[in-house]
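Thread: "does anyone have the structure for this chain?"

Original post by V.I.:
We have the sequence but no experimental structure in hand. Need at least a predicted one for the grant figures.
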Amino acid sequence: MAEPTESLLVFSDVHLGSDLNDSGPFVPRSATVDRDLARLIAHYREEASRGERWRIVIAGDLIDFVGMAVDPKEGEELETSLTAEERRNGVGSAEDHARLKLARVAERHADVFDELARFVASGHAVTVLHGNHDIELHWEGLRGDFRRLLTRETPEGARADAEARVEFAPWFFYREGFVYIEHGHQYDPFCATRFVLSPVSPRDPRRVERGFSETLLRSIVRRTPGLKEHGHEERGLASYIGWGLTLGVRGSYGLLRRFFETVAELVRIQRGYASPRAEELARRHEEHLDALARDEGHCPKRLRRLRSLQSAPIATTLRGVLASVMLDRLGVGAIVVVLLVLTLVASKLGVLGGAGPYVAGGLVAAWIALHVFLSRGRGNVDPAEEMVRRAADIAEIFPAPFVVMGHTHVPRRLKVGASEYINVGGWSEEEPEPGEAKPYRAPRTHLVLHPEPSGPTAHFRAWHPDEGPKPHE
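Reply from O.Q.:
Generated one for you, tokens below.
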């Protein structure tokens, strides 16, 4: 059957549940974000669509399954037992763990879920793309829970039809000649998933595998007072060391312990990628890719060409793990310091004669060269420009006037070839800390796409609390 014509409301990176933390420090999420998002959904529910109905397309990271740290309450039973890492950092990515998290999120953000439910009850549709923070939506049981949350306002006899209008897209959303949408994390080696259609762990198929950034977020960022999730593209090794020293002896020791625990976990992830189970996952991914091609009417070669654009996760190699946490540069620096001390001692004892300064200079020069070389191995922490480049490639494989992504939280609109690339920004915002001079404010941007006889139109807007949607500048 032909798809009904629809107007699309696209937004991304809401990160519901990001401040749910049962056992560690956290910065509260801004209450105004939920209020504004609920008003946005209500506004478009009441506005006339230029098609047969509205469809909300959430371009990933609606729910922050990674960022929250919740523990089972008394009487809550989990079928999947907790690992040592999950006992430290909260329940993990197993299906029953994720369902517990969703229940907490629905309670914490009831106003947003209530408005989504009213949107669906009014006859509209919702598509949720999987991002790197909510890849747990891979689990069918979790999807069922989500559908029930969004159809609770629908009369009993109409719920089957309503549930069919709540859809999930593990990779991308495409309407030929209209729009191509995906989250964008697959072009970020720090966040990419090795097998986007089979994201389970080769070490334990009951769990979804974490990427590099998600592992650090759970184990370090959410456990360290004052450490923000964003802004790391501007920090180097010296910056992290200097910042760590400001935590005091106890704080520095705790951070160092968590750091090496996290490195050990990243090494285990890397070994899992090299195991025979990973080869089986790769075969299963190919089967899922062929099934997606059949279901959506795509040529399998076209999907494989699209997949070839994706970045390899940085944690798939041991060198990538060491480079990602700058442990390679830290190790080289430590060795150079030891050698410089030995050079100084040898010079004092007359062993090197007059060659001591030359040896020391050579060591410093070698350290600088290795530091530069190893820095390149880490890659660019900010994926924004890579996403723009890939948008141009995507538009050739899946022709559409608009290629839309999220992930960076930074709104952007520019021409890429014959198409436009639009990054829809984000809705994740924390309450300002006392004395914070310039608190971060989420852009609250969204995209409205209308089907028109002359061709689709795109309106890039920002939500203003007092004025509603206004053109984004």
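V.I.: this helps a lot. Residues 326-378 form one domain.
O.Q.: and The radius of gyration is 24 Å.
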